[in-house]
Specification:
With 148 residues, this protein is an alpha+beta fold. It has three helices and eight strands, in the order H-H-E-E-E-E-H-E-E-E-E. It has a single domain, classed as Hotdog Thioesterase (Thiol Ester Dehydrase, Chain A), CATH 3.10.129.10. The strands form two sheets. A six-stranded antiparallel sheet has the order 1-2-6-7-8-5. The N and C termini lie close together (8 Å).
């Protein structure tokens, strides 16, 4: 299973509405249509920081998975919020480094408001050797994928 379908079909991603559209050659793109249940404000649609973080984390993992060929559980992630999210969000991830045990990606997030307002920057570190872990909960079922 490819990282795009694997991560888009992850129950948590489905719940939030995250769609990973592209993950290839260390790059990934994902989107999240903003819904009222994502909001941190009862009276206005302003995305909760956890929603933005989840999109960044998922798309960052997709960039790593596109090179590692296996699931990429998060080891560490930091995010800088730059502006409130009041519309649909796009995340663009780039693989910074991949090694035997860890991969690092940078994720830029934008509101799809016609101006591509930059709303956050994130850096994530992900485990890359889970295919050899044996009894790992991440490698059960479709954890390891191929493009076949």
């Amino acid at each position: 299973m490819s990282p795009t379908s694997s991560l888009s079909q992850m129950p948590f991603s489905e719940h939030l509405g995250i769609e990973v559209e592209h993950a290839e050659d260390g790059e990934a793109i994902g989107r999240l249509p903003l819904e009222s249940f994502h909001s941190s404000n009862r009276d206005a649609d302003v995305a909760h920081g956890g929603v933005i973080f989840s999109l960044a984390d998922t798309v960052g993992a997709a960039a790593v998975m596109s090179e590692s060929g296996t699931v990429a559980p998060t080891v560490d992630m930091r995010i800088d919020y730059l502006a409130p999210v009041t519309d649909d969000i796009r995340a663009e991830a780039e693989l910074i480094r991949i090694g035997e045990n860890l991969g690092v990606s940078r994720v830029e997030l934008y509101i799809e408001d016609g101006e591509d307002t930059h709303v956050a920057t994130a850096h994530g570190t992900y485990k890359t050797d889970t295919a050899e872990a044996g009894d790992s909960p991440w490698t059960e079922g479709d954890g390891v994928y191929s493009d076949d």
